[in-house]
């Protein structure tokens, strides 16, 4: 083994001296430049549609909570300090009276964050919980996004406890826990908002 | 450079199918195949990236120094993957949502790197284009079969439409990662048996 290794090393060393470093650097630089250009162009092309999609997803979720007639207040609601939520939306009835606050929360699920909106009514009780995105196990944890499951949150308020106030989905305790944690985070945020 | 489209098609779809024969790209083939929609979407995204990266790398094959070729391939591949990811997010948001992390992960999918290294860096642009196309379609074919099996038995539907009557209980096992392995094994075994048969039939034909 050892005897074989030596001559191999020598032959391997020879081309090392003749590696065309300048050519490699120039070539990679050129390829990276072309790729950066392509990426920049795609980014500019897709920037607006992606932002519009994001906005449409939020708006349709808010519509499902507050009905088609509710209007999203243009003014952004500042998130109170120390509250771990993504955004707060103020919804108004067509006559201008506030319909309630909706809080968007990311809650750590079984495999990734569950992106959800908790909609509160004017009386601070939960109007509806909407899941925007989740990547829980299909057929198991993903069932927490089902309408029938989320329906049990409607009308409740205050800090909720799993298996007491809210049923868990058997075999998907972690995902059920993630949803209730998110809802409680939103409730705390609403309390901090002082409404 | 001479090549035959028929041979490339046969290679990509059957004789050298990236999933059934080469068993490459299994990670994504297992993970996204919970529904037929996902399988088709992932397969087509992969095909688009394979064609683009094969053509681009084939164009640059005389220019890329061999010592830096892997770095160059990865840069090219990740560029196209990011482009497809952004385009899906912009124009097919629901598909992009369900494929999730697996689009960015195409960067490290070994099928693409394997085709770049084994084919595109040694063959002409047109041949590389067809090689990418048929390898991609072969991958898509495999994903369609696996995801159809999993969706049909795992949730009783196909392409989101209920096929099996409610009285037949769904085998949720097929929707789980472990079920994915079983589905892959079943489909691969069947496909290999079929490919062997086709090969034997062809060999018999030549003899006569």
Largest interface: A-B, 25 and 29 residues
Strand content of chain B: under 5%
Structural class of the secondary elements of chain B? mainly alpha
Kindly state the percentage of residues in helix of chain A.
Answer: 40-55%
Count of discrete structural domains of chain A: 2
Could you characterize the architecture of this molecule?
The complex is a heterodimer of chains A (195) and B (208). Chain A is an alpha+beta fold and 195 residues long. Chain A folds into 2 domains: 59 residues, no CATH class; 125 residues, no CATH class. Chain A has 4 helices and 5 strands; from the N terminus they run ααβββββαα. Chain A has a 5-stranded antiparallel β-sheet, with helices on both faces. Chain A is extended and about 75 Å long. Chain A starts with a helix and ends with a helix. The model of chain A has no long low-confidence stretch (mean pLDDT 86). Chain B is mainly α. Chain B has one domain. Chain B has 8 helices and 2 strands; from the N terminus they run αααααααββα. Chain B has a two-stranded antiparallel sheet. In chain B, helix 3 packs parallel to helix 6, helix 4 crosses helix 6 and helix 6 runs antiparallel to helix 7. The two termini of chain B are 32 Å apart. The interface between A and B is medium-sized, with 25 and 29 residues.
